[in-house]
Amino acid sequence: MTKTELRTQYKALRKNLSEAEIEEMSLAIANGVLSLDVWNKTYFHVFLPIEEQKEINTEFLLHLLSGKDKEIVISKSDFTTRKMTHFLLTDNTKIKKNVYNIPEPVDGIEVPSSKIEVVFVPLLAFDLVGNRVGYGKGFYDQFLAECRPETIKIGLSFFEAENSIAGIFEKDVRLDFCITPKKCYPF
User: Fold this and answer.
1) What is the pTM of this model?
2) pLDDT at residue 137 above 90?
3) Cβ neighbours of residue 5 closer than 8 Å, sequence gap 6 or more
4) How far apart are CA 48 and CA 141, in angstroms?
């Protein structure tokens, strides 16, 4: 299927999920992250979920990272440049939803992309070789291209892998892993 077809299909699948299902699957995904060999890293980038889009609740993941004394980084999106600015998540960080209902830090301590060692990537669908389909704005492809080559890219998905995705571009950045409630896919 093409990216556009997959976007439509997976948005519809997500729309049918209940709050209880989202919570249960989000917890299973966070538990799946425990199996990865990433705990020697320090700087972890986590997306804050758009509840209206029924995204994965990353609160469980945030608690896990916090419990392991990791530096947690969250982003603010600029829809004019399609760039993301990254900030350290602290007890003093104020979060506010933007016009697209994306929870973002108001301000804080900026962290360069080059310092981030692990990125948890939001997505709608992914395939067996690590290609992913997001919302199509290119924010994460641009951000991931700014990271160091050894930065570990981990997709989080409620659903299992597609066999393949048609229409992958050269600038599309592949994942290293994808965690679903049932499985960890290494690429």
Assistant:
1) 0.95
2) no
3) none
4) 17
How many CB atoms within 10 Å of residue 53? 15
Element (DSSP H or E) covering residue 118: strand 118-122
pLDDT at 111: 97
Place of tokens 């070789």: 129
CA angle 184/185/187 to nearest 5° reads 145
User: Can you read off the two tokens belonging to residue 52?
Assistant: 């209206």
HEC sequence for 139-165 = HHHHHHHHCCCCCEEEEECCCCCECCC
* Numbers of helices and strands, H then E, in the chain: 4, 11
For 75-100, the pLDDT digits (tens) are 999 999 989 999 999 999 999 999 99
Phi, psi values for residue 43, rounded to 5°? -100, 115
pLDDT digits (tens, 9 = 90+) for 12-21: 999 999 999 9
CA dihedral (110, 156, 177, 29) positive or negative = positive
Indicate the SS3 state at residue 24: helix
Q: H or E stretch including 177?
A: strand 177-179
